[in-house]
Amino acid sequence: MKLKISEIKIGERWRKRSLGNIDGLAISINKFGMFYPPIVRKTPEGWELVAGFRRVKANELLKREEIEVKTEENLSLLEAKEIELEENLQRQDLDWVEIVTAKKELDTLKKKLYGAAYISENGWGIADTAQALDESESLTKRDIRLARAIEVMPELAKAKTKTEAMKKLKTEKDKIARAELMKRVEARERVEGKKEESVRVICGDAMKVLREIEEGSVDLGIADPPFGVGLDSMAQACEVSISRYKDTEQAMFEKVRVVVREMSRILKPDSHFYMFFPIGINYPWFYNLLSENFGYVDPIPLAWNKGTGGYTVDQSYRYMPVYQPVFFCQKKWGSRKLQKGMKNVFEAEPVRQKQHIAEMPSELMEILIEQSSLPGDLIVDPFAGVGPVGVAAKRLKRRAILVEVSEDNCNLIKEKLMEV
């Protein structure tokens, strides 16, 4: 049967994203004709399109007034939707979001048409949807779960691939689970009475939090600040945690300047301070800032030998960087000895399964803590990340205040400390 295209009513379509290569389809139809005509159904208002929207659009592009159609006069609205979804799922040019969304909608529609398996013994279930799609039940389940997750977290649809979206979903689930765990722990503590913790985690901006700490009350400071090298964008690509800040050089300068001044204020006169920093053009800036606030800054930085390169370089012309520099400062020169003599190069295995893109090993922090403090001493870390200083301090029977701007990282630190 042939209909005028103008007579075909096109309602809201399932496919709302890209329609693919309509020009290419028009060329193919012009050359070979349509192998499968669009499907229409009879309604009181006239003929309504069921499936074949792209074919209709391609014929419009060819400036055709009439089009061959297949008619279905007794289809219900749900049955029409069923045909549309099943036909779209056989397409080769759907993107991953359209595919998982179509599977979810098809599963929901089938249950409306034939009854749900959990209500009726003969009803429709996930296994039936998988069979209809000729794929494994586990794949169908996974895709439908992802489609439902997109409804509450639309940002997942921005992922380039389904695998990337699944990883992001897992990360979000982990964050939610950590937050829920901490809520339960805190609720139990309110009932049983909060225990005195040797390591205190404060979720907030170090520039503000440090101002609340009493002057001259801290025995040791360790700071691993943002380096202003764009780690926020790198973290997104690697799908590992990073605090809620823009890691620009200007933001780093402003934050570190305030934090160093405050750390000098709260540290005792006989204390040490360790500052990790990015080697290179910023060496003079960090050295001068620390020298303005501390009585002594060793001009020869300490070095943590990571054993692996921090980033890729052309080794034909440059040496691969495999160490992290650390400035060693004293509030007042000669006021406190190191616990034992050591070389200024430290060996500590880097973290293999990182939870933060710039995560330092707690074993490295243990070396610094043992050198510059005693059991019971108070340590402050203004950029706690995922808590290596806190873990090391608890192991070594020190007290610590950890300041971290990311709420998720704070929950992660608390979870780690429960296991130490």
Description:
The longest helix is centred in the middle third of the chain and has 31 residues. Helix 13 links the parallel strand 14 and strand 15. The protein has 14 helices and 15 strands. About 5% of the residues have low confidence. It starts with a strand and ends with a helix. The strands form three sheets. Strands 7, 8, 9, 10, 11, 12, 13, 14 and 15 form a nine-stranded mixed β-sheet that branches. Helix 12 packs across helix 13. The protein folds into two domains: about 160 residues, Conserved hypothetical protein from pyrococcus furiosus pfu- 392566-001, ParB domain, CATH 3.90.1530.10; about 210 residues, Vaccinia Virus protein VP39 (Rossmann fold, 3-Layer(aba) Sandwich), CATH 3.40.50.150. It is an alpha/beta fold and about 425 residues long.
Number of helices: 14
Q: Mind summarizing the main beta sheet? A: 9 strands, mixed
* CATH fold label of the largest domain: Rossmann fold
Structural shape: elongated
Number of domains: 2
In total, the number of strands is 15
Average pLDDT, rounded to a whole number, is: 81
Helix-strand category: alpha/beta
Low-confidence segments = 232-244
CATH class of the largest domain reads: Alpha Beta
Helix content: 40-55%
The CATH H-level superfamily of the largest domain is Vaccinia Virus protein VP39
Separation, N- and C-terminal Cα atoms: 75 Å
Radius of gyration: 31 Å
